[in-house]
Amino acid sequence: MAVPMTPLLKDELDIVIPTIRNLEFLEMWRPYLQPYHLIIVQDGDPTRSIKIPEGFDYELYNRNDINRILGPKASCISFKDSACRCFGYMVSKKKYIFTIDDDCFVAKDPSGKEINALEQHIKNILSPSTPFFFNTLYDPFRDGADFVRGYPFSLRPGVPTAVSHGLWLNIPDYDAPTQLVKPLERNTRYVDAVLTIPKGTLFPMCGMNLTFNRELIGPAMYFGLMGDGQPIGRYDDMWAGWCVKVICDHLGLGVKTGLPYIWHSKASNPFVNLKKEYKGIFWQEDIIPFFQAATLSNEATTVQQCYIELSKQVKEKLGKIDPYFDTLSDAMVTWIEAWDELNPPKKAELPNGAAK
Amino acid sequence: MAVPMTPLLKDELDIVIPTIRNLEFLEMWRPYLQPYHLIIVQDGDPTRSIKIPEGFDYELYNRNDINRILGPKASCISFKDSACRCFGYMVSKKKYIFTIDDDCFVAKDPSGKEINALEQHIKNILSPSTPFFFNTLYDPFRDGADFVRGYPFSLRPGVPTAVSHGLWLNIPDYDAPTQLVKPLERNTRYVDAVLTIPKGTLFPMCGMNLTFNRELIGPAMYFGLMGDGQPIGRYDDMWAGWCVKVICDHLGLGVKTGLPYIWHSKASNPFVNLKKEYKGIFWQEDIIPFFQAATLSNEATTVQQCYIELSKQVKEKLGKIDPYFDTLSDAMVTWIEAWDELNPPKKAELPNGAAK
């Protein structure tokens, strides 16, 4: 099944970037990102200024801005960690978000052509997902592909896609132990596929190259408490991914992974990473079974309701592992309160249709 | 994680082919298949002779042979339909089976090199599967790949792989309605990936280009009752795939799909296919939810026990749809009886270790 020509979504998509330390980054992406509005969330010292090259339309938030806008609720936003990027998801007013790290450059496809990552994300997110049955020729909505023999026709319309998870050539997204064991491994395999992650299956969502539909799943895209003052780092996107997937499965929404690739230019320091990760490496052995077993009630019909239910289960089931999860559970609630404050329900969404 | 050099498995693998009508077929595959033993199962008129080129080591079975070997139990083997190939799985004495259709030729990879499909299947089947969590860089056991950040370490050893499902360039494996709507569509996309189909997810297993471990899953590879005297065709491999996947999930075995590709040379007639398929197109709307909901008891610890449990559920739940499923359920039991007759348990497998 083919989808029509990719629209640009210029007025419907924001680009969210954690602190830009790498000046080349925006220049390299200029042809692709300049048509869009940028939201940059500075993770460190608010007095340090960030230079944005001319021609970009952007807003920049530092810690002082976050504190001013959210007040005491700013406690749910990580400090000195790129997890703070989720503040950008909250202040955006657009339907779609593309988030990317500043060490991710434009990749080339096997023919040598530059990959317009955002265009592929838009294709992914605008075409349905198929989480209920696996299609062996991958995304049936791509040009030249379709559903294969034996695919039930009732499932072919698919469900709305909430998330498009892109991948990385060059430096793969490995954990510290794997980085240490395989310091020279590079991802050179261009896999020309997009696929829906089946219902009931969790995946490791990486925040380096990610697009999502804010209206469908935004309130679940919380990147948790990482970095300064926290016992853990580098699990911000993972945490969001596990919550997002459980909620998408509950609400009948789709998550795609695969294309587009970006070029991940440099590996972060494995020793620093190990320090950030080591508790997570233990904890994920309990966190994954927790999310695999998590169920949400029939009453939870909005992302917010789902997320609040999940936060309670986090406190109840993961609080035993470490007090960190009590704090995280509270922060999940604060995040939703802050989200709703900045994103009040539209008039049309009021239950009886009456204006506020 | 890398696996060691691919062994040939010459003495451990049989090639099963339904009737060879296409004489070019074996010549094209000669460099790849000649080292192996071939089991050819003739689907039609037993008086018609099949010419096998010199140099191949093969055994050929026609309907008279099947009747002679299985006696009354031959009723479980389809007549005048390539579904009869599963008789070959039963008479083989090897650990692995590669089955391929005679309209499948050697494909080329994007660099123009001929693809040794069997070598890739062997790689797939000898390396573990990872059905409990999705790895975004696909098969972590391929050269140059690994598990990504956030993948629980306890799940990284994986589980034994029971099935390797290969794909097709050129003519895609579409159902009749899709063939009719898209007569000119060709699969030209070479997706350089192998992946585990997650636990709990069903897929449309195509028998054109398939490898499996007989010892792990053989008795579930029954291709059902199709063709002559049956109300349905072209669901033989699908039926096997659904049963196989439910049983693999229950027993903790893996199913991989993706590479290798073969070149599927010609589309079968969509009008003929529609006639064979149309009941299946209705029925699969009930069959898929049936298999998605099917659970096996803790007592079912062998493939045979699982399959017999499944056969009872088929009778109970699908028998309502059409009497065909009663017949099929009985045939599933007959198939297991015939399998056990031709494949008696090895002495070491006797419960108390005593020789028979």
Automatic annotation (TrEMBL), chains A, B:
Q: Which residues carry attached sugars according to the database record?
A: R149
Family designation? Belongs to the RGP family.
Q: What is this protein called?
A: UDP-arabinopyranose mutase
| An MF annotation (GO) of this entry | UDP-arabinopyranose mutase activity
**What's in the keyword line of the UniProt record?**
Cell wall biogenesis/degradation, Glycoprotein, Golgi apparatus, Isomerase
In which broad location class does this protein mainly occur, judging by the first location in its UniProt entry? Golgi
Instruction: Write down the EC number.
Output: 5.4.99.30
State the PANTHER family in the record: UDP-ARABINOPYRANOSE MUTASE 3 (PTHR31682:SF44), UDP-ARABINOSE MUTASE (PTHR31682)
GO cellular component terms, alphabetically, are: cytosol; Golgi apparatus
Q: Which InterPro entries match?
A: Nucleotide-diphossugar_trans (IPR029044), RGP (IPR004901), RGP_fam (IPR037595)
Q: Where in the cell is it found?
A: Golgi apparatus
- Native source species: Protea cynaroides
Query: Looking at the record's lineage, which domain of life comes first?
Result: Eukaryota
Give the residue range of the signal peptide.
Answer: none
Q: Which GO terms describe its biological process?
A: cell wall organization; plant-type cell wall organization or biogenesis; UDP-L-arabinose metabolic process
Primary role = Probable UDP-L-arabinose mutase involved in the biosynthesis of cell wall non-cellulosic polysaccharides.
- Location of site Required for activity? R149, R156
Its UniProt entry gives the catalysed reaction(s) as: UDP-beta-L-arabinofuranose = UDP-beta-L-arabinopyranose
